[in-house]
Amino acid sequence: MSSNHTQKMKFELEKYTIYTWKNWMILHWILNPGLAFNELVLGQRVPKISLIEKNSNKPRLERMIVPCPHCETLHDGRIWSTENGMAFKNWFGLYCSNCGNIIPCLINVTSLLLLTLTFPIWGWLKNSLKAKWLENQPKRYEKISVETIPNSFDSQNWIQTGLTWGAIMFLLVSLLIPYFSGQEITAKTISIGLIIWFFGGLGFAYSLKLFLNKTGTKKEKLS
């Protein structure tokens, strides 16, 4: 289905806030070079359009909806949670279990650059890889349930998430990239990297906690 169909989808603006690339959290996903790892290696993707129910006192995490532009099914965003085991392996987009099509997703700028530069290596495999991926999707969605999914950012869980993300970024930015690009790795650069990504990881996870736990008791601004 073309992107024009995506743009023609009609939503009840009194009921939903529409999130696109213009939202600061979504824009962060596009511009942060570190998130290219999540996208290219882990297969974590963000839909081009998502909705948030406005008039509800539930946390934002439980109000997130992902619309399919092909069949117009409104999917609970928690389908693609780590608790369901569906947060990753979505390299080609988010699969719609209702119609079998792919829900279009945004792409990180660094991911796009890397994919463009390496296209001669992987380009000729794209169609076969995508066909195999699509073939495996229905089985992944057979026993999906959102009713018993806990809020991953309740209590102190956000700390574990932040430290994990910070550790991945430290390994990538402070060790792997300098090593393969021929830059010098010293005790000083390692120490600075540890400090930056320790606090950077916690800061990122805490901001995500605030974002996902926000209730909808007030009208949210249209994004």
Quick recap:
The protein is an alpha+beta fold and 223 residues long. It has helices spanning 3-8, 24-31, 35-42, 60-63, 109-117, 119-122, 126-140, 157-180, 187-213; strands at 16-19, 50-53, 56-59, 64-67, 74-76, 94-95, 102-103, 215-216. The chain has one domain.
Write structural notes for this entry.
The protein is of the alpha+beta class. It has one domain (3-216). The protein is built from 9 helices and 8 strands. Strands 1-2-4-5 form a 4-stranded antiparallel sheet. Strands 3-8 form a two-stranded antiparallel sheet. A two-stranded antiparallel sheet has the order 6-7. The longest helix has 27 residues, at 187-213. The protein is globular. The model is unreliable at 1-6 and 219-223 (pLDDT under 50).
Structural key phrases:
223 residues; alpha+beta; 9 helices; 8 strands; 11% strand; disordered N terminus; disordered C terminus
Main sheet attributes: strand count, strand direction, barrel closure? 4 strands, antiparallel
Number of discrete domains = 1
Shape: globular
Radius of gyration: 19 Å
Widest sheet: strand order?
1-2-4-5
Report the total helices: 9
Oligomer: single chain
Helix-and-strand structural type: alpha+beta
Fold topology:
Blueprint: H1 3-8, E1 16-19, H2 24-31, H3 35-42, E2 50-53, E3 56-59, H4 60-63, E4 64-67, E5 74-76, E6 94-95, E7 102-103, H5 109-117, H6 119-122, H7 126-140, H8 157-180, H9 187-213, E8 215-216
Antiparallel strand pairs: 1-2, 2-4, 3-8, 4-5, 6-7
Helix pairs in contact: 8-9
